[in-house]
Prior knowledge:
alpha+beta; five-stranded mixed beta sheet; Heat Shock Protein 90; 3 domains
Amino acid sequence: xxRLGHLARTYALDALVALLALEAMLEVxxxxxxxxxxxxxxxxCIPALALMAxxxxxxxxxxxxAPAAYWLLAVALSFVDGRLVTFMxxxxxxxxxxxxxxxxxxxxxxxxxxxAVVLGGAAIxxxxxxxxxxxxxxxxxxxxxxxWLAGFALRGQSEQAEAAEARAAVAERERETAARIAxxxxxxxxxxxxxxxxxxxxxxMVLQVGAVRHKLPDALADEAxxxxxxxxxxxxxxxEMRRLLGAMRRSGDGLELGPQPGLASLDVLVEEVSRAGLxxxxxxxxxxxSLPPAIDLSAYRIVQEGLTNALKHARASHADVTVRYGAxxxxxxxxxxxxxxxxxxxxxxxxxGIRERVKIYGGEMNAGAAPEGGFVLTARLPLEGHEx
Length: 388
């Protein structure tokens, strides 16, 4: 159906011109005895009418030349037979369509030349009509001038619509680019955060392996050598991780020497946000348990981002944070009574970062306006498959 609609919009004028040309041919054939009928033979009239309408079919390829050619042919034929162009009403309608097309040209100078062609051509055609009146000499060109003016006015609206579409396309590309940048930045941030977690775990393993190796008796020299290889591999892995982290760290990033926060630090976060001007209530459902470090850190970052959005963008007066502990899942909810996330220029994309963080751990995240008002951010992080 959409393809049929596109074809109809594209070729509607072509079909109309063809029907009008056929009607003109039929009319000049059936009304040969009328007093105002053309004096030339049908063998001249019918090909001449077809020749007049034919240029309009090429209007897409030649937007100026095609409708202008109609008027030039009409003028030329009026010198051969003054009644041929004016006898059929359908030819008059085709002339209005040609005038509209000249006014609708995107090139303003050519459109103005088209106005001269329309007015001059119509005046000559009427002048060559036998027994024409002074009123016809004035008002018939004026009608075609009004058709040109209608096309010129619609051209301005079309240009505005096209400019709006272009701006919307640019804005959409900018949003997509900003979203990709936000995802990349969030992934780099997660990698930097996980470095501390993984590095600590690997360091503990290396130290434990070294302690075991030193306690082995001389009789277990082969086992001691194997453990020494594990130590070397562990230290090499730590060195590579630090090198990779240095490459990912931006020039303005400082070293994070403090411990990574987790859900146990939410009380401090809530207090800081409340001091900043947004009262926050913290609710904990279920029995809090020790979460895997990466999940614990990500859960904290999600709540932190939700409260930051409520504080900076939502114009909220109060927020509620709910943490629900389950057997194999932790659920988070940040609810405020504001207007929601800021639309702005789209460069922050805090929600994009949260979604990326949740996706990494196979969780689910939703954000949007609440039915009763305000904005709600919910996230679900599965614990299955993540060791504490």
